[in-house]
Fold:
Amino acid sequence: MPRSLALLLLVFCIVPIANADDATPTEAVLTHVKRATVFVQVQTGTSKGSGSGFVVSVNKDVAFIATNYHVVAGANFEKKPKPTPSEVVRFLKEPTINVVFDSGTKTERSMKATAIAGDPANDLAILRVEGLKDPPAAIDWANSPKLIETMPVFSFGFPFGQSLALGKGSPAITVGKASISSIRQDDNGDLNVVQIDGNINPGNSGGPIVDVKGRLVGVAVATIRGSGIGMAVPGIELGKVMKGRLGTLHLVSEKGADGKVTIRAEVGLIDPAKAIGEINLYYLAIGADGKKPAPADRLEKLTGVTKLALKVVDGIATGEFILDQPKGELIAQVIPAGNLEIAKLFATRSLNLSGLRNAADIESEKPPEGWQEYTPKPFRAFTVWIPEKTVAKAEQDRTSLVRGLRLRTIALHVEVAGGVHYDAERIVIPTSVKLNRKELEEALLDISIAEIKGRVKDSNDVKLRGIPGKETLIESASSAIRVRVFVGVRGVVFIFKAKGPKAQIEKMDTQIFLDSCRFPTTPPKDDTETPVPKVDPPVVTGPKVEGDRTAILGFAFGTEFSDAVPEGAMLVGLEIGLGKFFNNDVIKSAQPIFRNGEKETSGELHGLKVDKVVKIVAKPGYVIGAVTAKSGLGIDGLSVTFVKFADGKLDMTDKYESDWVGGMGGGGPNTVRSDGRPIVALLGRTNKKNEFIAIGFLMQAQKK
Structure:
C-alpha cells in the first residue's frame, strides 16, 4: 500500500456497515469466518493496543494469522515510514502479542503469538500461534472473488477493542455490511487498494473482509478521516506474503581512505512458509551517459553484471562488495533462485555513486562550468557550490527560542530558474543538551515531508567528514525534496536540501549541490560561544506541602510548581493539553483532577491553554499511583497507572494503565511512582513560554 495513502488515511480502523444489497452470508459462512477471526492484543513497553486478525493457515496445532503490520509495530509504523529490513525484524520482536480465539464467548481462549513476517509497504503481518487445540478452519486467501463496484462485502473484527467487552472477558466479534465503491490501481495497472463505503470504527484493522460466500476480498487497514470510506489491502497482496516475497533492498555505503567504496546490502524476506531458498544480488555500475535498465528488466540477463550470493540469517539476506572507482550510478537487484513464481518478485535499488565522494574529493576539484563556490559571510559555517545564475539569493543569521532553548541558525537560500530551491543550514544547539541523533533526524525529516505534503520515496546512509547522516528523497504528486541531515558533535546540525518540481530534482544539478556541501574540519570558534539560555533558579509556586518528592521527569530547568491535593480528596486524573513540536505531538499543559467522594474538582492549569485536551481519570475506587513519560526538552507523551485505594493506602498490586497520550519522541520511557503512600501534590515545571515541561509527585510524609 503506497505511503501516499498514509497522508489521507487514519490507520487503526475500518468497519463498514451499510449496503443496499440484501444478499447475506449463510449461517455456515458466518460461523466459519467468525471462528477464524481473532482479537489481537499488543503491548510494547507501557504502550498497549489492539486490532483484529484472522487464521490463514493451520498445520496440526499451529495456526498462522494475518493482521496489519501497524497493529503489531504500533508507534514504530508512523515513526519509521520506510524501515530497513533490520528495523522490521526488531519491530516485530519488540511487542508481546496475545491472540484471543472465540473472543467474547464462553469458550474464548487467549494464546501467545509470535510475529514471523512483516510487510510495511503493504501494511501486512503474519503471526504464529503454537499449541492450539481444535484450531478454527482457515479463511481461503488463494481464491479471491472477482471484484466489481457495488459488490456487497462483510467485515469481521473488534471495533473499539476492549471497551466493548462485557464483564471480565474479551469483546465479542462485530460483523459489518458494506459495498465496494472503488477498485484502485497503481501506475502499473495492478490492483492496489479496495475502497469500501461504510461506517468507520477503530479496532477493525487487520480483520477480514469477505464476499457473501466467505471468500477473502481484502484485509481491513484504514479509513479516510470522517468520511465513512474505508480501505482494504487486496487479498492478492496477502497471497504474495503467504507464498513468499522480498521486502525492501537497503544499501549502505562507506568510503575508505584508499578511495574504494564498500557497499553493504540487506533485503528482508517476507516468508512465513519458508519458501524462499537461495538469494542472489546482481549489480551493475552505469556511467553518467550509460543507458539504465528498464524497471521490469532482470539484471541477471544483462551483460556486465556481477553476481553475489547473499547470506540469510533471521529473515534478512545480507552481503557486501567493493567498488574501486565509484562513478555514475549503481543498479542493484535481488532475485530468489529456484521458485519461478517467487522469482517474479525481485527487489531493485539504485545508488548515485557521485554522492559517495568525500569532502576531500570536492575540495580538490573546481566547481563545474556555470557554478561557483560560496561560503556564508558570518563565518565559515559551511561551503557549497551554487549556480552562477540565480533568481534569488539570501543569507540569514538568526537566533530563536525553541522550547526554552536558544538556537543559532546560519542559513543560505538560493532559488534558480525552473522553480528549484537550494537550502543550506547550520544550527547550533547549546552543549548542555544531549542530542538523540535518530530522533532529531526524524523530526527534521518530518518538516521536509510537511513542506510538500509528500512521502518518503528513498533513503540512504551518508557520511560527511566522518559524521554519519541520512539522505532522503521525498515526493508528492508534482514536487520533490532531496535532503541530507548530519547531526554532529558539540550540538551542531547541518541540513542541505534541494526542493522543486519532481523532474528538476531528478537532474544532475541537485546532485552537484548536495555533493559540494561540506563544513570545516575544525568547528568555528563561534560554535563554543553560542549564547546558552540563562537558567533561573528553581522557583516553587503554590502552597507549601509537607511530603517526600519523587523524581521529576522532563526538562531539568524552569519554574517549578506544586499543586496540593485538597483536604479529604485524592489525585485521580489529569487533563492533558496537546500541541506540536515540529510535526510531533507533545504535551503543552497539565491540570490535576481531584475526587472527594463522588465530587470531582480541578486544580490549576499548568502550561499553555490549548484547544486539544485529553482527559485521563480513574474509575471509582482508584487513584493515580504512577506516571510513565517520554521526555526531552519537555514531556512528549505519557500514560497514567491507576491503583486501588483502600484503608488509607495505595494497593500497588491492583492497578491498570491508561491509554498513551501525546507523542513518542524524547528519551525513555521512564516512570515515577508512589511507594504506596497517597500522593499529596502534583509537581512539575514550566518554561519561560509557560509550556509544561516536567512532571513528578509529592507523597504523604512518613510518620515519625
Summary: The two ends are 64 Å apart (CA to CA). The mean pLDDT is 79.
